[in-house]
Amino acid sequence: MGYTGEQAAKYQADRQKRLKGEWIADNGPCKKCGSDVMLQIDHIDPSLKVTHNIWSWSKERRGIELAKCQVLCHDCHSQKSRLEKYEQKKRKRGGGDSKHIGVHWDKDKQMWRAQLSEHSKNRHLGYFASEDDAGEAHDRAVIKVNPDARMNIIT
Ligand SMILES: [Zn+2]
To answer: Would you state the pLDDT for residue 94?
Structure first.
């Protein structure tokens, strides 16, 4: 007596779910915060990711992909994904722009340049070796002309 197609599919799905659960249990809790709530599999370096859909693969093949992974809780995972998307965008722009408002990388000087946009003119605020210092310079300047302006909020 054989399985019907539907039973076979359900068997496969259950098996894959079990394998995934076992791997998470073996590799958890969350690598970042130690939580064991809503654990997920994360590719440590997303550029190396082939697929998440590995549970039907052979153990050997799966092992290669899982060696690139870690366990994160839902919150840490979504936070990491957001950061990765941001980094991706930054790379697409050519990597010249800072995470801070009013800060740009000056290729010639190899320093961060802070500037303030004022009445559609840019006021130069100086060059800084540290990206955060440049962001702070922007904050100090902008608060004088517009206390409601968007800030980098450096602490
Ligand atoms: Zn976490």
So the answer is: 47
Count of domains forming the chain: 2
Residue 147, number of CB atoms within 10 A of its CB: 8
Q: How much distance in Å is there from the Cα of 54 to the middle of ligand 1?
A: 23
Ligand 1 centroid to Cα of residue 87, in Å, is: 20
Q: How far is the CA of 40 from the centre of ligand 1 (A)?
A: 10
Do 119 and 83 share a structural domain? no
85 Cα to the center of ligand 1, angstroms: 18
Q: Which residues contact 105 (CB under 8 A, 6 or more apart)?
A: 95, 96, 97, 98, 112, 113
Whether 154 shows a pLDDT value over 70: the answer reads no
Among the residue ranges 34-48, 62-76, 95-109, the one predicted with the least confidence is 95-109
User: Does a structural domain hold residue 152?
Assistant: no
C-alpha 74 to ligand 1 mean position (Å): 7
The rounded mean pLDDT for the chain is 88
Give the residue numbers spanning the domain of 77. Answer: 5-92
Pair of tokens at residue 27:
């590799």
The alpha carbon of 81 and the centre of ligand 1 are apart by a number of angstroms equal to 13
